[in-house]
Design the sequence.
């Protein structure tokens, strides 16, 4: 899987590229704060059936809390196992995103 930086992700958003952004943290973490446009799919509950509406050729970006969190990588690996071809892992996660001063939203 490809890694993506916060600048690359922000650029994709600014250019209004079509992709699915997956927050691989817990639902609680997602509801407290997340990157705008993200969908909550916790890595430990990410089953094939949950993502069946996402087309196999869509670009998917996963993220979690920070560089030390492994949930985004786990989610990305599961998605690749399920047959998704364009999966990217934003390793810096929410902490890296916020450090750059980029916006977040809450549920």
Sequence:
């Amino acid at each position: 899987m490809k890694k993506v930086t916060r600048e690359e992700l922000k650029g994709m958003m600014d250019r209004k590229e079509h992709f699915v952004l997956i927050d691989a943290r817990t639902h609680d973490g997602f509801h407290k704060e997340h990157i705008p446009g993200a969908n909550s799919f916790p890595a430990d509950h990410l089953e094939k059936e949950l993502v069946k509406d996402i087309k196999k050729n869509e670009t998917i970006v996963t993220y979690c809390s920070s560089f030390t969190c492994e949930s985004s990588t786990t989610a990305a690996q599961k998605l690749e196992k399920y047959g998704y071809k364009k999966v990217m892992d934003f390793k810096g996660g929410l902490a890296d995103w916020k450090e750059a001063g980029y916006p977040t939203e809450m549920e």
